Amino acid sequence: MTRTAGGKVTIEVSGLRLIRDTEFRWIIPQSGPMRVPGVVFAAEALLPALQGDQSLQQVVNVATLPGIVRASFAMPDIHWGYGFPIGGVAATDVDADGVVSPGGVGFDISCGVRLLVSRLSAAEVRRRIPALMEELYRRVPAGHGGGGIWHLAGRRELERVLREGARAAVAAGFGVEEDIARCEDHGALTIEKPAEVSERALERGRGQLGSLGSGNHFLEVQEVERVFDVRVARTFGLEEGQAAVMIHSGSRGLGHQVCSDHVGRMLKAMERYGIRLPDRQLASVPVRSPEGQAYLTAMTAAANFGRANRQVMSAAVRDAFEAVLGDRDLRLVYDVSHNLAKIEEHEIDGRRRTLCVHRKGATRALPAGHPDLPDEYRDVGQPVLVPGSMGTPSYVLVGEPAGEAFHSTCHGSGRVMSRHQAMKRDTGQALTERLRRQGIHVVARAMRALPEEMPEAYKDVDVVVATCEGAGLSRPVARLRPMGVLKG
After folding, report:
1. Which of 171, 242, 303, 379 could crosslink 224 through cysteines, CB 3.0-4.6 Å?
2. Distance of alpha carbon 94 from alpha carbon 267, whole angstroms
C-alpha cells in the first residue's frame, strides 16, 4: 500500500492500481482506451479476494464500451464472469450510439430472488423442518435438465408466458393477484411478441417452467433473525421470529440459449458498426441497431420466463406448507432480478438521458419516492434481497437516495473460491452433517456436487452488506438465517 502525491491511499490488486476515494469506494483511473474510470465499491478487507482473478481487468474492459457514461461500476460481491464481472454495472447512452452487451446481463437472464413470509413462527416451522424439506424436495424440481411444475399445453401457452411473465403464471392458477403488485415491473417487462427467441431456446424452456436448476440456485426456509429498521420492516411485512422462504433461480435453459444465440449474432455484426473491444466476450452493438433491438426483445422474453418460473415455484412452496404445516398463507415480499439490461432515464451532467443500464449480478435498489415502486413501498423504498451462502445469513436491504451506480447494489456475497477448489475441500455428506449440527437441514438432488456451494466458497455477506451501506447504495432492514436448504 502506498500514498499518492495528493495523500490518497493506493493499492495494487492483480496488476491494477486502485486509489482509495472513501472507505468503501476505490477508483481505477481512466487510461488507454477506457472512456470512463472504474469504480469499485469494497471494504479494504474484500480486496485480497480479487488478487489473482480477472474481475478488475473486466471492470477496465467494460469501461471501453461505446457510449458508456459515468463509470464502470463493481459491487462488493464482484467476481470473474463472462465479459462483464459478476457484480458489474454499466450504463450506455442510447442516443449517443451506446451499446447493449449480452455479457452485461449474463447467460441466466433474469436470475433473481423472491422472498415469501409466513404467518407461522420460525419455532413452529423448525419443529417440522425435516418433513417440510422433504415435501419441498418432492414438489420442486431441481438440478440439471428438464422437469418443471407447469406442463405447458403448447407453443401458444409458452409464448403467453414469454409475453406476460408472472402474470401468466397467476392467471393459470399459480399464485394470487396480490403477488403481481410485489414483483419488479409488476411481474413482466413489456413485449409484443417473442419473435427473436430461437426454436432451440423455446425447446429448452418448454419443459423447465417451475424448476430450480443447479449451481448456486436454491430454495431456503429461513427465520427472520434480526430487524434493523422497524418501520421499513413493518412495511415489508417482516418481524423477528417469523418464518420465511427465499427462492433464487432464473430463466433456465431458455435464457442461456438466448444469450448464446445473440452473442453469436453480435460478434458477426460488430465490424459493420466499427466496434473493437479488448475482449470478444464483450460482444455488443448499438442499442438502436436491428441486432440490439432483437437482443433486447429476446432478453425481455427470457426475463419474463424467469419471473414466471419463480412464481410457479412459489405456488409449490405454498402447497408444501399446507401439506406439512396446515397453512399456505405465505405473503410475497418482493421478486427482483439481478441479471438484466433495462432502458431507464437518469440524470447525467445535469440533463436527463435515456440509458441502457446493464446489471449483471447486481440488484436494482430504488429509493423511497421512485415512480417504479409498488404503491405500498413508495414511502420507504424497494426491498433488495441479498442471499448469503448456504449456511450463512441472507439480508433484506432497502434502496438509498444517493444510488450513485444508477440505483444498483450487490446481489449476494460473491464467490472467492472456484467450484473446483471447493470440491476438494469437503464431501457432500460431511458438509451436510456439518450444517445439520448448526441447525440447517439440507436436501439436494446431487449430494456429490454440494461442496461447490459451501459457505467458505463465498465472501462474508456481513462485510458485503456493510460496504453497500457505507457506500450509500442500500442499507440493511433485516437479517435472515437458514433453517432448511434445497439445492439442485
Report:
1. 242
2. 20
Chain position carrying cell 423455446: 202
252 pLDDT exceeds 60?
A: yes
d(CA 238, CA 315): 20
Contact in structure between 92 and 64 (CB atoms under 8 Å): no
CATH of the domain at 481: 3.90.1860.10
Q: Is 350 within a domain?
A: yes
Q: What's the gap between Cα 78 and its chain centre?
A: 12
Residue 260's alpha-carbon distances to 55, 313, 467, in angstroms, are 21, 26, 34
**Domain span including residue 352:** 86-487
DSSP 151-215: ---SHHHHHHHHHHTHHHHHHTTSS-HHHHHTBGGGG----S--TTS-HHHHHHHHT-SS---ST
Just list the catalytic residues: 411
Instruction: Please name which of 80, 116, 75 lies closest in space to residue 338, comparing C-alpha atoms.
Output: 75
d(CA 469, CA 397): 9
Q: C-alpha cell of 403? A: 444510488
Q: Which of 94, 26, 29 is nearest to 65 (CA)?
A: 94
Q: What's the pLDDT band for 390 if we cut at 50, 70, 90?
A: confident
In the prediction, which pLDDT does 146 show?
A: 66
